[in-house]
Amino acid sequence: MASGFGARFSTRKGDGFDVMEALGAEGANYDLVICDPPAFAPAKPALEAGLRAYERLARLAAPLVAPGGYLVLCSCSHAADLQAFRNACARGIGRGGRRAQLLHTGFAGPDHPMLLQLAESAYLKALFFRLDG
Q: What is the end-to-end Cα distance of the chain in Å, rounded?
């Protein structure tokens, strides 16, 4: 790699859930874990399954975060509002054996304006957590 950073990181290719399970089994630990999956709940019929997927994502990601490290969980699901997404993430973090502080909630930038008449247009959201030991 021209930048010289190739020796400082590695990549894995595969299903995100499978890769996180493998990393957990290996005892991997990171100061920062960012999960930005595709939309798990793109429409109302997929909402419950989508929320279970976000919970699973958080449950698998939380143990990968070093004590005092950061976990960022993102959603682009139209059907999952912020409260439902946040609740699913909190349940997953807890089921992953961790406690967390919510530091910041992020939303879309100016290039994705929210239409006041269409709540689903506020579909981009990101939760920034600090995890304890």
A: 35
